[in-house]
Design goal:
There is one protein chain. By secondary structure, this protein is mostly beta strands. The protein has strands at about 1-5, 20-25, 35, 40-45, 55, 55-60, 70, 75, 85, 90-95, 95-105, 120-125, 135, 140-145, 155-160, 170-175, 180-185, 200-210, 215-220, 230. The chain folds into three domains: about 1-75; about 85-175, Immunoglobulin-like (Sandwich), CATH 2.60.40.10; about 180-259, no CATH class. β18 (about 200-210) and β19 form a beta hairpin. The chain is elongated and about 110 Å long.
Length: about 260
């Protein structure tokens, strides 16, 4: 509740004030009363501030704009959490890990920094890999998740407070099947007994943050590099000799495709 007083030049209540007062606030989300007259120079007004931080309320005469006053700063703090916001990508491939951001919010959608509850995750994708039950830090935390099923083309992930199930929120994510994994390398080149297998050079480049230069040089490589496409990168490679093969493991130097 805010009390508005009309005062004279000496700080006394101007009981004869007959004007109408309009209220504004530095809080753009504030709930403010309609323009109103004062009674004997004073009047109570119901105001709800919704944005965290230091806020003020200003009363201005509707006819004489120079006749106004502003409150001292009011520190608006976070209220108790009433619901959760769960943020994630709009679309994702199956089997690809992504990040979820969970935020505890109060009734005015401010972050509830005082929230101390524990969040439990569920999904419409029964095969999804979901975060373990977790707490938030100052009302916010980021988690990893993976969706495994395309289903109808979308899946939901929901976070719910373990003690108060009305404190909940979710996100709907479009899901597409990851492209099939293929090894796109051509057939390995022929080798010669006693010689290093397939010697070649590759151009390696990196960025020097101190000189702000891109530096490149050739590096000699041995072995046959495999290249993968599709699936869910990054890829890793392993090799074992085929049945009846006398080649020792590690004969190939297997390359790791980028990204």
């Amino acid at each position: 509740m805010a009390t508005i007083r009309a005062e004279d030049a000496y700080g006394n209540v101007a009981t004869g004030y007959m004007g109408t007062v309009h209220l504004t606030s530095s809080d753009m989300q504030a709930t403010l009363p309609a323009n109103s007259a004062l009674t004997n120079g004073t009047g109570p007004f119901s105001v709800t501030l919704k944005t965290l931080g230091s806020q003020t309320i200003t009363a201005t005469d509707t006819v004489t704009a120079s006749l106004k006053g502003t409150s001292s700063p009011i520190n608006v703090v976070s209220n108790a959490a009433t619901h959760l916001s769960v943020g994630g990508p709009g679309n994702i491939d199956t089997r690809k890990t992504f990040q979820l951001t969970v935020t505890a919010l109060d009734a005015a959608n401010n972050t509830s920094a005082v929230y101390t509850g524990e969040v439990h995750f569920t999904s419409s994708d029964s095969q999804a890999k979901l975060p373990a039950d977790s707490t938030l830090t100052a009302g916010v935390a980021t988690f990893s998740a993976t969706l495994e099923t395309v289903g109808s083309g979308t899946q939901t992930i929901t976070g719910t407070d373990k003690a108060t199930n009305s404190i909940t929120g979710g996100v709907t994510i479009g899901v597409t099947a990851a492209p099939a994994l293929t090894v796109s390398s051509s057939a390995p080149p022929a080798g010669t007994v006693g010689d290093t297998y397939n010697p070649h050079s590759v151009l390696v480049c990196y960025y020097n943050p101190f000189t702000h230069q891109r530096i490149c040089h050739w590096v000699k490589e041995n072995g046959f590099t495999l290249t993968g496409m599709g699936g869910v990168p990054p890829y890793s490679w392993s090799w074992a000799p085929g049945a009846g093969s006398s080649l020792p493991p590690g004969f190939f130097r297997l390359g790791l495709p980028a990204g």
